[in-house]
Amino acid sequence: MQVNQFLELPYSYDALEPYIDAKTMEIHHSKHHRKYYDTFIDLIKGTDLESERIEDVLAYPNEIPENIRQKVINNGGGYFNHNIFWEIMGPNAGGEPEGKLMQSINENFGSFEDFKMKFNEVATTHFGSGWAWLVLNSDDKLQIMPTLNQDNPISKSNFPLMGIDLWEHAYYLKYQNKRPEYIENWWNVVNWENVLSRYNQI
Prior knowledge:
2 domains, minor pseudopilin epsh fold, Helix Hairpins, three-stranded antiparallel sheet, mainly alpha
């Protein structure tokens, strides 16, 4: 059985309307994500990586054979990042987190509103393509960090709790060059139950 499977969306393409439009979701998931996944699977075929979970592959990038390393990081990262992205969003979502996660956000950032402001700033000012993440770092502290292209925080010993895709294909059909508007509206589809579930895994 293949270890890494293509993740089908747990909701319909139009489920995140009006914040993320159905056409963007369809192209993003069925074209971009699918291409990352298929390329990653082709790259690792016949190697020792074929039997490893994607998160374990990315956690130890220096162990990826040098001749395919950057391509695996790019395409495996695109596959893994989007797995997280789809799952930490959902319909009838938004609001604020609860429980231990909310307590940790307050402890690390002062308040939920301060956290949102800092996250939005990192996401808005990130130059070019990439992601903005909320991670649990190696000191067991919450941290906001950006990554370039399809890099993932797990490669730097940080556990990704949630992330927003800042590549233009994630928002350009609806928002054109208005990245700040996309970021602000994205909070309405954040599935905090899933983010909390990821936090509770630690």
